[in-house]
Amino acid sequence: MTRKKLRTTFTALSLLLLGLTAATAQQEISEPIQNARFVDILPLDGELFHVQGVDLDSRHIWVTSVDLANHKGYLHEFDRRSGALLRRLELTDGPRYHPGGISLNGGSIWVAVAEMSPNSSATLEEIDTNTFRIRRRIHVADHLGCVAVSGTTLIAGNWDSQLFRIFDLPSGKQVRIVPNPSATAYQDIKLVGGQLVASGVVTPLSGTIDWIDWPSMKLARTERTGVTDRARAYTGEGMALKGRDLFLLPEDGPSRLFHFRLKDQEA
User: Fold this and answer.
1) Which CATH class, in words, describes the domain spanning 31-262?
2) Which regions in the chain score pLDDT beneath 50?
């Protein structure tokens, strides 16, 4: 057999095995996202590195990504209708170049920019959505990988969200530390309707979306999640929830924003 034929056969077998692995993971649930129906996919047309968090409004999509090779972190803004890249802001802060999950709060985006290791340091940054200028910084002696903001409360998960650090926004002071009530390593979190909605991974090919009551931080609801056709866990990276509309951004560039609608249950 020629080298060309060997390469072709090897590639075909690799793709088949990848598909079988994804299919096996998907068999455990009957839908890509339990109790949600697929709506559509929006490809994001612009350079993205290792994606992290996502949030959106009626006109824009904001995404964080980390360039691991060059130790740089970015916030990207896309047009929600076309998926076209509009602008990009570098967030690198010395040894802190890992921006994680993000949360939109009025005219601000909150993001934690952390060192790329547990038990390290992070800076919580408030960024103006219009000017892309940093309004405020809060320094924290821990790696923080995701943030959720509502009113005067900010919740940040550390490495794999083993702990949640809770801050009073007006003062910028930490007021509580709460253990993760789930085994899921949360990657992106949002405060929605009086609950913390958190998404992440249990294994590389499976994950959950959890609803955690606030302020008790007790686990109230769990929906299991599967994998994309690229064998990436849907909840492996970015997540946003707007009413019953669920948006997931699991893949590095070229990235696709997946839109689902939650079924019959209030989020």
Assistant:
1) mainly beta
2) 1-29, 266-267
